[in-house]
């Protein structure tokens, strides 16, 4: 039996007896022991498998550039990150822009705005659309990442990735969504078009906010593993799978307003299954990255 077939046999066995992911966890631990972390292999692993929760923050910080690939530098770099966090926080307190009553996610937003040179004159200024995106992602990240310093840096770099690396791709996702929904269920797409709902779907919630505020964090982090590691196209397949999952409900609605309202507030109990099927759909249409440890 070859090494690959042995690995596949073990994976199937582990899954059958309830230990799904044991082999993957071992594979990731091997990658994380390298003196210099291999960014490409970590990206490939994250594209293929969900990250174990105990390693997620570390892998995200490395992939987002918060930590360097070299292990020996991690402690010192995080010390600098903490000092920068404290300095920016202190500056906001000194100018009385924040207080003890300011919600933590808003503190993160103002810190980000101050560091970007875009702090408004007063906290009472109306929020920009980009601020709403930041707050939604920060609120979800707060549920995933316990440490406030880590939470701020991951949120900030995640949003920066959306605004830079994915800047040209995100506006194209609605068209891709329409294309793949047509391949999976053309009748469902025809119904959306007949109701004039295609242009009114919650694309901002789905694609700009990466489903923050739409799906529970336990499901969301599996999607964000893919976004952080290089694919925002996964968002398209989550949207497609939501439509396929709730097809009967959507087909029974006869107006764009009702369809959009429903999709903005989908039942949460199906979210894990939706994400699993969406990842399968993504692999089906886009292939599976090859990972070699």
TrEMBL record:
Single GO BP term: negative regulation of cilium assembly
Keywords noted in UniProt: Cytoplasm, Cytoplasmic vesicle, GTPase activation, Lysosome, Membrane
Residue ranges annotated for the Rab-GAP TBC domain, each copy included: 50-231
Gene Ontology molecular function: any one: small GTPase binding
UniProt xrefs under InterPro entries: Rab-GAP-TBC_dom, Rab-GAP_TBC_sf, TBC1D7, TBC1D7_dom2
Main location: cytoplasm
An annotated GO cellular component: TSC1-TSC2 complex
UniProt protein name: TBC1 domain family member 7
Subunit structure: Component of the TSC-TBC complex (also named Rhebulator complex), composed of 2 molecules of TSC1, 2 molecules of TSC2 and 1 molecule of TBC1D7. Interacts with TSC1 (via C-terminal half of the coiled-coil domain).
Biological role: Non-catalytic component of the TSC-TBC complex, a multiprotein complex that acts as a negative regulator of the canonical mTORC1 complex, an evolutionarily conserved central nutrient sensor that stimulates anabolic reactions and macromolecule biosynthesis to promote cellular biomass generation and growth. The TSC-TBC complex acts as a GTPase-activating protein (GAP) for the small GTPase RHEB, a direct activator of the protein kinase activity of mTORC1.
Family annotation (Pfam families): RabGAP-TBC
């Amino acid at each position: 039996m070859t090494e690959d077939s042995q690995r596949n046999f073990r994976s199937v066995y582990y899954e059958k007896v309830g230990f799904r992911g044991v082999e993957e966890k071992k594979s990731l631990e091997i990658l994380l022991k390298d003196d210099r972390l291999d960014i490409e292999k970590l990206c490939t692993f994250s594209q293929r498998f969900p990250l174990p929760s105990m390693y997620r923050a570390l892998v995200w910080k490395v992939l987002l550039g918060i930590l360097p690939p070299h292990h020996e530098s991690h402690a010192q770099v995080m010390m600098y990150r903490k000092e920068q966090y404290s300095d920016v926080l202190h500056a906001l307190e000194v100018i009385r822009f924040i207080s003890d009553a300011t919600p933590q996610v808003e503190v993160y937003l103002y810190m980000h705005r101050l560091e970007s040179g875009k702090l408004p004159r007063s906290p009472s200024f109306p929020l920009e659309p980009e601020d709403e995106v930041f707050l939604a992602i920060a609120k979800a990240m707060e549920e995933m990442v316990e440490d406030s310093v880590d939470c701020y840096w991951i949120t900030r770099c995640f949003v920066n990735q959306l605004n830079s690396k994915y800047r040209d791709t995100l506006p194209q996702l609605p068209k891709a969504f329409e294309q793949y929904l047509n391949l999976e269920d053309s009748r469902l797409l025809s119904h959306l078009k007949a109701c004039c709902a295609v242009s009114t779907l919650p694309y901002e919630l789905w694609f700009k906010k990466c489903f923050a505020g739409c799906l529970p964090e336990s499901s969301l982090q599996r999607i964000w593993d893919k976004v952080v590691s290089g694919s925002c196209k996964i968002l398209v397949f989550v949207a497609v799978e939501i439509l396929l999952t709730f097809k009967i409900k959507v087909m029974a609605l006869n107006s764009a307003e009702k369809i959009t309202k429903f999709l903005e507030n989908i039942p949460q109990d199906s979210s894990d299954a939706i994400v699993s099927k969406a990842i399968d759909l993504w692999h089906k249409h886009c292939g599976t990255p090859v990972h070699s440890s």
